[in-house]
Structures are given as structure tokens and as C-alpha cells.
Amino acid sequence: MAAQDPATAVEDLVQIGAAAAILGVSVDTLRRWERAGRVTFERRGNRRFLSSGQLAKLMRDRGASGLTSARNRLSGVVVAVKRDAVMAQIDLVCGPFRIVSLMSREAADELGLEPGAPATAVVKATTVIVETRQ
Length: 134
Fold this sequence. Notes:
Elements: H1 6-11, E1 13-15, H2 16-23, H3 27-35, E2 42-44, E3 47-51, H4 52-62, E4 73-83, E5 87-94, E6 97-104, H5 105-111, E7 118-124, E8 127-131
Antiparallel strand pairs: 1-3, 2-3, 4-5, 4-7, 5-6, 7-8
């Protein structure tokens, strides 16, 4: 099996604070889950990271919550951002779903979209609009 590119490996990881926000739990709860063996974090220095796949599994296990329709608003985390001079491709993991949005580079920059950032995909027909919490 070939070694994974370090840049790709970072895109697959979500910081513990972002994971907690997406799951609707505290960082302390995630630390307790780690001690109980429910999750496994990768440590880089003093920072804990959760794989996007493990985050998606936790989101599936916890089920939908909140007052919004899961059919058109999907909370998740940004796992990859590819920018060129004009456009940006944003990859999100929202529970068991992978959402890809194409937008202007300017919009992606204004939203501060980077791997690990919490975001919500708002789906209307064939259009995906990405929101962040400010």
C-alpha cells in the first residue's frame, strides 16, 4: 500500500473543537468518549484530531437533531478546499454524506473555508450553498 501524501492526510482530519461543534457536544465529552474507547484521536503535538470518516460515523450514530430539515440543511465539516484563480471546490462531510460545492474563490475566501472548519450545506434543487457560523 502506498504512503499517503501528508497534505491529503491533514485534509482528512478535523480538530477536536470543530468535531465537538458539529456533533453538538463539548470537547470534554469527546475526551471522555476517547477514554471510554468510543473514539480514537490522532495527536499532533498537543492537539487532537479526528478522522472525517470517524466523525461521519459518530454523526450517523447520533442521528439528526435540531429544528431544521435534514433534507436541505446538512451540518458538517470541510475536509478539502481546492482553489484556482477564479473558482473553488469545497468538499464537506455531513454525517454519512459527502457534499461537493463549487463556488467563486472570492466566496470561499470570504467564508474562511479551510479543512476542519464547521459549515452547513444548504441544498436547493441542484444548487449547494455553504454557510458558516459567524
